[in-house]
Task: structure prediction
Amino acid sequence: MECFLLRRLAPVSLLFAVTSLWGCDRPVVAPSPAQETVALVHNAEAAIRRPRHPMIAMQELNRPPRIDAQSGFQLLPEQGSGFYHFRGADRPGTDSWGRPTTIQCIQATGQRWATDYPDRPRIGVGDISRRLGGRFLPHQTHRDGRDMDLRPMTRSGEHKVHVRHANYSSTRTGDLVRVLLESCDVRVIYFNDWRLIREFPKVKKSRGHNDHLHVRLRTRERKPQALGNTAREPVATR
Result:
């Protein structure tokens, strides 16, 4: 390491004398393009796997909830015990607003998941609703803060997976459904795993739900005034 720093930082006039004194006068072989590519990929993967600083994670967990005064919706934190939020092309803070009971459901399910299955991947939470509700393209639902998309569980890793993919785990996804049903007042779950459809009466088949679980909750909360008449019962396609 010292030799590397010397070659990078030492002035040219001192380079040969100092490197010889320290035994660094061996020829330097430049890495090949293939080796450089491997190193870049390794560094990128290491950065993805690197845990967030504990102080940053603690600040996020202790941050007071963001609640919109007009709709009454609450913004889901980017991560919490047992869950994380993922988004596609949406801007940050625009796709994960829900009724307080919906956010509480996610947090309770995540806490239970982290307690029961600490060595498994966390629950990935995607779209919920817009800040004021209403249309949320390309969804036909997700209008009134009661719908949420969850990633199916994998055998390893936290990423998108298809129900027919080799890394998809039907057993772990079944455990997720069970924890959801025990932690939340679930009305229906749309997901195309036939084993889970046979096992859980609330899991239904629906076109376009091979790579995510669409969860719709029951609620006794009054419909937020900001939503008007846009909140309809779902005929789920997304």
Remarks:
- The radius of gyration is 24 Å.
- Residues 2-49 form one domain.
- The chain has two domains: 2-49, 66-227.
- Confidence is low (pLDDT under 50) at residues 12-22, 40-59, 228-235.
